[in-house]
Write a structure and sequence with these properties.
The complex is a heterodimer of chains A (115) and B (114). Chain A contains no helices and 12 strands. With 115 residues, chain A is an all-beta fold. In chain A, strands 2, 5, 6, 10, 11 and 12 form a 6-stranded mixed β-sheet that branches. Chain A has a 4-stranded antiparallel β-sheet with strand order 3-9-8-7, with no helix packed on it. Chain A has a two-stranded antiparallel sheet with strand order 1-4. Chain B has 114 residues and is mainly β. Classes of the chains: A mainly beta (115), B mainly beta (114).
């Protein structure tokens, strides 16, 4: 079975500072990796995903993530955050062994950007 | 495209009442999903559907029922509401449903059972 761990439930950061949101996963098979963002009172929307190829994936709003197979990690980074990045971020994995798109979500990290 | 829409946005139920959460997508996606989101717990899959007329249980199906009579609609029914069902419910869809595909989420329904 697959599982996803987001180690930090909350990350406070000042505006224009860099940020890293950590995600580790456990799986006995190869997986696809996703980061979703949830703004207050909204649904989840895709930030970026890793399917194959380059381990550095660039997403929307200046975010990027790096897949590290040996450390089973997929950490999300942004070099300079804005107030508008305040949201909850979810890491998710899916495995190609199912006959449908089964996602395993982490518990989320709330990013609080302060002025 | 409106994407995935959900109604209502918010509802308060008394214990034992029933209700249906509506979900509609206009992207012609075959696959649809219902999740619940509890604080600090991430999203848990309740039910999913791979096409009209086909549904199956996810991780936490107890206390819920679904139907899929059309490609567009995937309602979730709570028959006897319990406080443990207080949560935020999200509907999602994807096409064609393999594990590479992005899931598109609705805005959610906040349910409070008292």
């Amino acid at each position: 079975a697959q599982s996803v761990t987001q180690l930090d439930s909350q990350v406070p950061v000042f505006e224009e500072a860099p940020v890293e949101l950590r995600c580790n996963y456990s799986s006995s098979v190869s997986v696809y990796l996703f980061w979703y963002v949830q703004y207050p009172n909204q649904g989840l929307q895709l930030l970026l995903k890793y399917l194959s190829g380059s381990t550095l994936v660039k997403g929307i709003n200046g975010f990027e993530a790096e897949f590290n197979k040996s450390q089973t990690s997929f950490h999300l980074r942004k070099p300079s955050v804005h107030i508008s990045d305040t949201a909850e971020y979810f890491c998710a994995v899916s495995a190609p062994i199912y006959n449908f798109n089964k996602f395993y979500f982490g518990s989320g990290t709330k990013l609080n950007v302060k002025p | 495209n409106a994407g995935v829409t959900q109604t209502p946005k918010f509802r308060i139920l008394k214990i034992g009442q029933s209700m249906t959460l509506q979900c509609t997508q206009d992207m012609n996606h075959n696959y649809m999903y219902w999740y619940r989101q509890d604080p600090g717990m991430g999203l848990k899959l309740i039910y999913y559907s791979v096409g009209a007329g086909i549904t199956d249980k996810g991780e936490v199906p107890n206390g819920y029922n679904v139907s899929r009579s059309t490609t567009e609609d995937f309602p979730l029914r709570l028959e006897l509401a319990a406080p443990s069902q207080t949560s935020v419910y999200f509907c999602a869809s994807s096409y064609p449903g393999n594990s590479q595909e992005t899931q598109y989420f609705g805005p959610g329904t906040r349910l409070l059972v008292l």
